[in-house]
Amino acid sequence: MNKNSSNIMALAPNTSNKRETVCIFGTGDFGRALGHKIIQSGYPVVFGSRSTQTSSLIPKDAEVLSHAEAAQKAAIIIIAIQRQHYNFLTSLAEILHGKVLVDVSNNLKINQYPESNAEYLAQLVPGAKVVKAFNTVSAWALQSGTLDASQQVFVCGDDMEAKQMVMDIVRALGLTPLDRGSLLAAREIENYPLQLFPMWKFPILLTLGLTTFFFFYCLTRDVIYPYVYENKDFSFFIAISIPNRICPILALILLALVYLPGVLAAIIQLYRGTKYHRFPDWLDKWMLCRKQLGLVALAFASLHVLYTLVIPIRSFVRWRISNQIISQALNNKTQPLNNTNAWLSDSYLALGILGFFLFVLLGITSLPSVSNNVNWREFRFVQSKLGYLTLILCTAHTLVYGGNRFLSPSSYRWYLPNAYMLSLIVPCIVLVVKFVLIFPCLDKPLTQIRQGWERNPQYSE
Amino acid sequence: MNKNSSNIMALAPNTSNKRETVCIFGTGDFGRALGHKIIQSGYPVVFGSRSTQTSSLIPKDAEVLSHAEAAQKAAIIIIAIQRQHYNFLTSLAEILHGKVLVDVSNNLKINQYPESNAEYLAQLVPGAKVVKAFNTVSAWALQSGTLDASQQVFVCGDDMEAKQMVMDIVRALGLTPLDRGSLLAAREIENYPLQLFPMWKFPILLTLGLTTFFFFYCLTRDVIYPYVYENKDFSFFIAISIPNRICPILALILLALVYLPGVLAAIIQLYRGTKYHRFPDWLDKWMLCRKQLGLVALAFASLHVLYTLVIPIRSFVRWRISNQIISQALNNKTQPLNNTNAWLSDSYLALGILGFFLFVLLGITSLPSVSNNVNWREFRFVQSKLGYLTLILCTAHTLVYGGNRFLSPSSYRWYLPNAYMLSLIVPCIVLVVKFVLIFPCLDKPLTQIRQGWERNPQYSE
Amino acid sequence: MNKNSSNIMALAPNTSNKRETVCIFGTGDFGRALGHKIIQSGYPVVFGSRSTQTSSLIPKDAEVLSHAEAAQKAAIIIIAIQRQHYNFLTSLAEILHGKVLVDVSNNLKINQYPESNAEYLAQLVPGAKVVKAFNTVSAWALQSGTLDASQQVFVCGDDMEAKQMVMDIVRALGLTPLDRGSLLAAREIENYPLQLFPMWKFPILLTLGLTTFFFFYCLTRDVIYPYVYENKDFSFFIAISIPNRICPILALILLALVYLPGVLAAIIQLYRGTKYHRFPDWLDKWMLCRKQLGLVALAFASLHVLYTLVIPIRSFVRWRISNQIISQALNNKTQPLNNTNAWLSDSYLALGILGFFLFVLLGITSLPSVSNNVNWREFRFVQSKLGYLTLILCTAHTLVYGGNRFLSPSSYRWYLPNAYMLSLIVPCIVLVVKFVLIFPCLDKPLTQIRQGWERNPQYSE
Q1: How sure is the predictor about A145, in pLDDT bands with cuts at 50, 70 and 90?
Q2: Residue C161's pLDDT band (boundaries 50, 70, 90)?
Q3: How many CB atoms neighbour CB B167 within 10 A?
Q4: Cβ–Cβ of B195/A275 closer than 8 Å?
Q5: Considering chain A, what percentage of its residues have pLDDT values greater than 90?
Q6: Same domain for C403 and C259?
Q7: Is B150 in Cβ contact with A372 (below 8 Å)?
Q8: What distances in angstroms separate CA A15 from CA A169, A351, C78, C129, C152, one per listed residue?
Q9: How many domains does one find in chain C?
Q10: Chain B residue with minimum CA distance to A179
Q11: Mean pLDDT, residues A56-65 taken together
Q12: Residue B262 carries which DSSP code?
C-alpha cells in the first residue's frame, strides 16, 4: 500500500511542470494517432512493440522499445491493442504492477463479450490500475484535428488517482473528460460508439409506414380520381399539395401518440389499483421514445408551415385565383364579404399558428442544455400542461379547417373520406379519455395510486 | 481518524468489482423506488424499517431489517425519511459513526426551516458524513424509467470521499452527479425542486397586463368603432388582425424594456459619480430578468412573423384584393406603379426581416450551451452591440410602417392614435438617451466610473 | 510533507460549517468586487495592502492589513495584483509557504509573456500551491450580479486539494468551476477572455467579400441596366429583390465551400497514397472553420426564406399581379393552366423547402449541447450523409429555378449571366468530384489509406 501511494505521489505533477512520459503499447493506426497528439501536447511518448524497427509512420520524437522496456519508462501505459491479443500482458504482470493501464479498445458488436474489455484487462493484470478512456474518439478525428463532434471522453476506473492522471492527459489534448464512475461502467462506454440513434428506430419506422400509407391514400383521392373521372392532370400535386396534406396529418397523429401511452398507463393503473406492477413491455418501450416521437411530429409540423406559407407563390395557385377574378370581372359581379368564411379561415389559421408556436416551445425545452436548467416540477409543467394545450390547439385547428365539409357527400371520393378526417381519430380519443380522467372520481384514486397507495395491498407474511 | 480512513479504503471499489451493499432507512414510496433502481444497477440493498414485516411493495431482492441491523451491513445509508422523524437517529449515533448518510429529503415550502435538512441531520449525528443528494429526482421518474427531464443530481457534502461514493451510485443509476461543494449548499439544493420559473414571474405578469390593455385598445379602434359608425361587422379581426397588432407592439416595448434599465443605471452612476452605491431594489430586480424579458419579446416577434406571413392566405384578404381588382377592371383603368409606396413597403419589410433575424441570433446565443461556449467579451459584443442594432432595426421598421400616416387625422378614431404609435414611445426614449450617452463628454466619465473611479472618494480615517 | 497535509486537513471544511477566511492581496477594482461577492457568500475576507488605510470602497466587513499579516490569517490568498508587481511576493516566501495562491490576472494581448502569469507566480513562490481561477469573470459582472454570460470559471493547478478548495469558493459564489487540469493549462485560460470569435474571422471576411461582389453584380443587371435601356426606376429593388438574390447565392456557395475541403483532402490523399503527410496549411485552416462556414450559410438561407415568403405582401408584387389580371380581363381571355410551369414552380419550391429543412436540422445538431449527446458515428452520419443530401437538394432547387432560362439570350444583360448561374459553379464541382470519388476503384484505396495503409511505405532502418 505504502509503496503504491508513494509511487503515485511521485507521478503526480506536484513538484515540477515537466510532463510525465506516456507509454503506448501497439503501433497500429489508433496508437500512432494518439501518440502524435500526446506528443503535440508536450508529453514524452515511448512506444512498446513486438518489433522495435522504427517505421516512418511512428512520430519522430517517439522511441520504440520492447514492451517490457517501454513499460518501465512510464507510469501510464495506453493499451492500443485489440482484445484478442491481450494475453501476452500476463507475462509482463510484474512490470505492470502498480502501473495505470488505459484500455482504449472498442468492439465490433454491442455486448460482443461477456465482460467488457477493460474488465477483462483488469482480470489479466490484477496488480495494475485499469482505466477505460479514449474509445469514443476516432483516430481520424485525432489526426485531422477536426474534433467538431463531441469532445467528451468518457473515463471510468476503480482507482481515483489513476483516473485523475488519465483525465489530465485528456484535458491536455483539448478534450473534456467525463468521469463515469467505477470500471463497471466500461461495458456501457464500450457500447456507446457502436450505437446509431437507437431511440429513433421505432419512431422513424412508424413514420415511414404512416407516410407511405397516407401518400397513396392522397394520391388516389387527389390525382388518380380526378384523372379518371374528370380527365384532369394534377400530377404536379405530388410536389407540394400532397406533402402538405401528409405533413399536418402525421404531425397530429404523432403528437397524439406522444400522449396516448400516458393515458393508457393511467387506465392500467386504475384497473390494477396499484402502480407496483410493471407495464407491458410494448408500453414501456413506447413511453421511452415519446420525446423522439414528439420531435418527429415537430419536424412534420414545421414542414407543414413552410408548405403552407409558400402557397401564394405557387404558379398553380396564382393561375387559379386570377382565373376566378377574371371570370367574376367578365360576369360584372362582385361578391359581398362572407363573414362566416372570414371567421372560419381566420380562426383555423390562428389556431394553427398558436399550436405551432407552443409546439416549437416544447421542442426548445427538450434541448439538453435547456432541460438541464429546468427542475422536475418545471419540466412536468411544460411537457404536460403546455403539451396538452398544444394537442388541443392542433386538433381544433384541424376540426375548424374541416369546417362544414365533414358531412358534405362531395368530400367522399370512392367512399374514401378526406385524409385529414382520419388524422383526427387518435387525437380525439386521447383528448376524450384525458378529459374523463380529469374528473375527481377518477383523478383522486389515480393520484393516490401514483403516491404509492394500493387498492389490494398484498403483504407477504 | 485512522480507523475512518481505513474504513473508507475497504469500501472503495478498489479491490473487486462487487458492488457494496447500500442501506435505505424508510420503506416509503421514494425509498422503495430508489431501492428498486439501485438493485437494478447491481447493488445489494437492505432496508431499515420500524416493522420488519416484508411488504409485496418492497423489491424482492432486498432484505428488511431493523434500523440498527441494516445500518451495520452497509457503509452508505440513504435516509428516506421525513425530517420530522429524524430524531430517532440520535439513538443510533454509535452505529452510524463514520458511515455516509445520504439526505434525500425535500420540504414543502422554500426556506421552511432555519437550517437545511441535511445540516440538521449532520447536527443530530455528528460522527457521520452527511451527503445531500437525489432530492431533485422524482419517485415517479425513477419508477417509470422516463427520465426525460434533467438527469442531473446535485450532490453536496463536506467529506470528499463520501461524496465520491454517492456520486458513483448516482452514475450507476444512469444519472449525472453535479458536485455543488460543501454542505452549506444543501439549502439551495433543497429549495431548487420547489421553484416554478421564479425569474419569469415579473416578465409574464407585465406581458399579461400590456396584452390586456392593447387588446381592448385595438378592439375599440378596429372593431367597435367601425361597428358603431359604419355598421360593419369586423368581429373576425379578433382571430388574426388584432393579435397581429398586439404582437409587434409587445415585442418592441419588451425589447426596449430590456435596454432601459442599463440606460437608467448609467444615468444613476453618472449622477452619483460612483459605482459603489447599490442601485435601488426595483432596478436590481429588473436587470436580473432582462434575459427573460428579451425571450418573451422574441416569442411575440415570432408570432408577429407567422401572423404576417399568413396574410395572403386569409379569406378576408383574398376577398378584398379581388374586389379591388374587379372594380378597377370594371372601370377600365390600370394604375401606374407608385414608386414611393413600393419603396416604403419594401423597406419596412426588409427592416423587419433583418431585425427579426438579429433577434433570433440573440435568442440562440442565450441558449445555455451556446453562452457557455462564449467568453465575456464575446457575450458583451453580442448582447450589447447586436442587441442595440436589433432595437434600432425594429424601431425603424415600425416608423417606416407608419410612413406618412402619423399626421393624417383619419388615423385618430375617438381621439385614439394608432396602437403602434404608442409602442414607439419607450424604444425612442431608450435610443435617444443611449445616443446622448455615447457622446465623449458623457462616455468618458462613465467608463472611468465603471472602472472604479469616484468623483468624491470618501476615505474613512 | 507531513506538516502540509495536516495543514490542509485543518483547512478542509470537514469539522464544522464555518467558512475559512479568504485573503485578497490588492484593493483594486477586481479585488474589491471579488471581496464583496465572497463576503456575501459567507466567507470572512481580509485584504492585504501596501497602505492599510481603509477606503470606503472596501467592503465594510473586511479587514485591511499589511500583506504579511493578512497572509497569516488565511490558507487561501487571492492575488488580485497585476503581473508587473508580483516581485514583492518573493519577500513573503516564508509566510506563503504551503498556502494556496490564486492567480486571477489577465493580460492585454494573447501570449504577451513567454510563460503564463500563473506559472510565473509559481516560479516566484515555489513553496506555494498556485491555482489559476476567476480570470474569465469580469468585475462588472461580479458587482452588478448580472452573470448572464457563461457562469463557468476555468480552474487549473498542480495540487488537487488546493484546486478543490478554490472550486468550493467558486461554487459558493454561484458559479460553475471547470477543472482544466495542471498549471500548464494556465496559458490557454489566460488567452481565453481576450478572444473575439477567432474562428469566425475567415468566414465573415469571405462572406463580406462575396456579398459586396454579388451586390454590385445584381445592382448592375437589375437596376442600372433597366434604368439605362428602359428608363425604369427599380431602385427599390435594393430593399428586398436584390438581397433575396444575394442570400440564396451566398448560402449555396458557402455550403459548397463546407464540403470542398473534404473533397480536396481526399484527392490529395489519393495522390500521395498516404494519410501521414500533413495537408497544406490553408487546407487545415479551411477544414477547421467548416462549422462556421456552414452556420453563415444557414443564416443566409434563413434570410432567403423570409425574403421569399414576404413576396406576396410586397406592394410592387401586388401591383404587378393585379395589372396582369386586369389586362387579361380587359382582353376578355382566360389562360389555361400551363402544366409544365405548375410542375417547375412546385418542384423548385418543394426542393427548396426540403433543402432548408435539412439545413436547419444540421444547424440544430451543431449546437454544443446536442452534438455532445451524439457519438462519433452518429455525428458523421448527420454531418456527412445529411450534409450532402442538403447540398444536392439546394443545388437542384437552384437548377430547377433556372428551368429553361439557362440558354435564353434574354437572361444575358451586358453579357452578364444571371447571378444564380454563377452560384452553381462551386456546388456542381463539389458534387461531380464527390460522385467520382464514390466509385469503388477510388473509394476502396481511399478507405484503405484512411485506415493507415500506405502505397509506398518508407521504413527508416
Answers
A1: low
A2: confident
A3: 22
A4: no
A5: 38
A6: yes
A7: yes
A8: 17, 68, 21, 10, 28
A9: 2
A10: B171
A11: 78
A12: H
Query: Within the 285-314 window of chain B, which residues sit less than 8 Å (CB to CB) from chain C?
Result: 287-288, 290-291, 305, 308-309, 311-312
Neighbours of C244 (CB within 10 A): 21
- CA of C253 vs chain B CAs: smallest distance (Å): 20
| Residue C357 near chain A (CB below 8 Å) | yes
Boundary (domain end) residue, out of C168, C194, C220: C194
Q: Is the pLDDT of residue A2 over 50?
A: no
Cell digits for C223? 437596376
What value does the mean pLDDT take over residues B404-408?
67
> How far does the CA of residue C436 sit from the closest CA of chain B (Å)?
38
C150, pLDDT greater than 70: no
- Residue B409 lies inside a defined structural domain of this protein: yes
> Is-above-0.90 flag for pTM?
no
Shared domain check, A190 and A241: no
Q: Are residues A371 and A254 in the same domain?
A: yes
Residue of chain A whose Cα is closest to the Cα of C373: A150
Residue B5 lies in a domain: no
What mean pLDDT value characterizes chain C?
85
pLDDT tops 70 at residue C12: no
Please tell me which residue, A75 or A142, carries the higher pLDDT value: A75
Instruction: Tell which residue, A77, A78, A89, has the closest CA to residue A30.
Output: A78
- For residue C117, the model assigns a pLDDT of 92
Given a contact cutoff of 8 angstroms between Cβ atoms, the answer to whether C83 and C107 are in contact is: yes
C176 and C44, same structural domain?
Answer: yes
**Chain B interface disruption, residue of C6, C40, C43, C168, most B CBs within 10 A:** C168
The C-alpha of B367 sits at a distance from chain C's nearest C-alpha, in angstroms, of: 9
Calculate mean pLDDT across residues A204-210. Answer: 95
Contact status of C151 with chain B (Cβ, < 8 Å) = yes
Grid cell for residue C443: 473509394
Lowest mean pLDDT among C114-118, C314-318, C326-330, C350-354: C326-330
Does A157 share its domain with A239?
no
Task: Classify residue B111 as left (phi > 0), alpha (psi -120 to 50) or beta.
Answer: left
Mean pLDDT of chain B, nearest integer: 85
Strand (E) positions, B42-186?
45-48, 63-65, 76-79, 100-103, 129-132, 152-157, 176-179
What count of Cα atoms within 13 Å lies in the side-chain half-sphere of residue C415? 0
Question: Which domain CATH number covers B147?
Answer: 3.40.50.720
Contact flag B195-A357 (C-beta cutoff 8 Å)? no
CB of B28 within 8 Å of a chain A CB? The answer is yes
Asked if residue A203 and residue A133 are part of one domain, the reply reads no
Binary contact (A366, B309; C-beta < 8 A): no
Q: Which chains touch A (3 or more CB pairs under 8 A)?
A: B, C
Domain co-membership, C268 together with C168: no
A29 Cβ under 8 Å from any chain C Cβ: yes
Domain, as residue range, for C134: 22-194
Question: Is the CB of B367 less than 8 angstroms away from the CB of A370?
Answer: yes
Complex ipTM, two decimals? 0.85
Do A361 and A230 share a structural domain?
Answer: yes
In which band, very low, low, confident or very high, does the pLDDT at C2 lie, cut at 50, 70 and 90? very low
**Residue B166 above 80 pLDDT?**
yes
Q: What is the model's pLDDT at position C293?
A: 94
Could you tell me if residue A2 is inside a domain?
no
In a domain, C157, yes or no: yes
Return the partners of chain B (3 or more C-beta pairs < 8 Å): A, C
Q: Of A176, A194, A212, which residue is a domain's last?
A: A194
Q: Spell out which residues of chain C touch residue B275, defining contact as CB-CB under 8 Å.
A: 143
Against chain C, the chains showing at least 3 CB pairs within 8 Å are A, B
pLDDT tens readout for residues B242-297: 999 999 999 999 999 999 999 999 999 899 887 777 788 898 888 888 889 999 99
Residue A199 confidence (pLDDT) above 70: yes
* Residue A300 and residue A240 in contact, taking contact as beta carbons nearer than 8 Å: no
Inter-axis angle of helices A290-309 and A339-365, to 10 degrees? 140
CA dist., res. B269 & res. B277, Å (int): 9
Nearest CB partner across the interface for C192, out of B343, B368, B375: B375
